[in-house]
Write a structure and sequence with these properties.
single chain; 302 residues; alpha/beta; nine-stranded mixed β-sheet; two-stranded antiparallel sheet; 13 strands
């Protein structure tokens, strides 16, 4: 079994064609701007909409762990006591509570993903495995899932930050059509500051899967404070050329904070409030930098 946070259908931003994206739970990195903070933890966890809570305390009465209580006029969940049993979700009168993370067997997940085969066939799409970080999930599970999808003629794309053991990538290489591979910055100290770890393993894995013949889309979350300068972009370009990374496409992804509202629901604070997206003109300029360096398939977004 693996924990899945959501299954997003009719996606057009996670690879080619119309896709279904599966978000696995758990990631070793902690990007300051993470759009899916509910996928960072490897375990089930409670989430509730504090802003809309009316304080009826039905959840407090129902909680078998006594993890919910009123404090200063607000309903508070003690995450140390909560075991994510889900009882509170059945008693919330406004349906403001949920448990993030659902278990699927491989066959259950394949059955769900095959419902959209018609859309995959007509659009050249397929299934994207994302997260969190799917490459740090149960690899026996992920490999079996990929094998069964390919057996049914469904192409598999992996959306990855690259922070995982290389043997995990090696296991999936025969079944994966495309890797959507993140590069945030070549500056290791900036990488540690904003992403929570160095970039050594990420770059090493990229070089290895490229040498193994993988089809790779490089995705660059573009943030003014992190990599939104000519130097930062030219450093990435120089690296890709020096290491002869076989790049089928480059996607420059302008920063946005649409996931910031999720943080309070899981008891976290969004730390990306000081980050900014480059202007439209700056983004177009970065595209030209890549084109001038010989990269031809460059997109903003996607």
């Amino acid at each position: 079994m693996s924990l899945i946070t959501s299954i997003q259908k009719y996606s057009i931003h996670d690879g080619d064609g119309i896709r279904t994206t599966v978000f696995f739970k758990g990631c070793l990195l902690k990007c300051v701007w993470c759009h899916n903070p509910e996928t960072q933890n490897y375990k089930k966890q409670p989430s509730y909409d504090r802003e809309r809570c009316v304080g009826c305390l039905s959840c407090e009465k129902a909680c078998p762990q006594k993890a919910i209580h009123e404090e200063n006029g607000k309903v508070v969940t003690d995450l140390k006591l909560c075991d994510a049993c889900g009882t509170c979700t059945d008693y919330c009168n406004l349906n403001l509570r949920e448990i993030i993370g659902k278990e699927y067997t491989v066959d259950e997940l394949v059955k769900e993903l095959r419902k959209d085969e018609m859309f995959y066939e007509e659009s050249g799409g397929g299934v994207t495995l994302s997260g969190g970080e799917v490459m740090t999930a149960d690899m026996d599970y992920v490999e079996e899932l990929c094998k069964k999808l390919v057996h049914h003629g469904i192409t598999v794309t992996i959306d990855t930050c690259g922070q995982a053991p290389y043997e995990n990538f090696e296991r999936l290489l025969p079944y994966v059509n495309t890797f959507l591979y993140d590069i945030k910055t070549m500056d290791n100290e900036i990488h540690k500051k904003y992403i929570g770890a160095g970039n050594e393993l990420i770059l090493s894995n990229l070089e290895k899967i490229s040498a193994a013949g993988a089809r790779i889309y490089i995705r660059i979350p573009t943030i003014r404070e992190v990599n939104g300068t000519d130097k930062a972009m030219n450093d990435i370009i120089a690296y890709l050329k020096e290491k002869n990374i076989q790049v089928a496409q480059v996607n420059l992804l302008p920063y946005h904070n649409t996931g910031s509202g999720k943080y309070v629901k899981i008891g976290k604070v969004y730390e990306g409030t000081e980050l900014h997206a480059p202007s439209k003109e700056e983004m177009n300029h970065f595209v030209e930098l890549f084109k001038s360096a010989g990269f031809h398939n460059i997109k903003i977004g996607g």
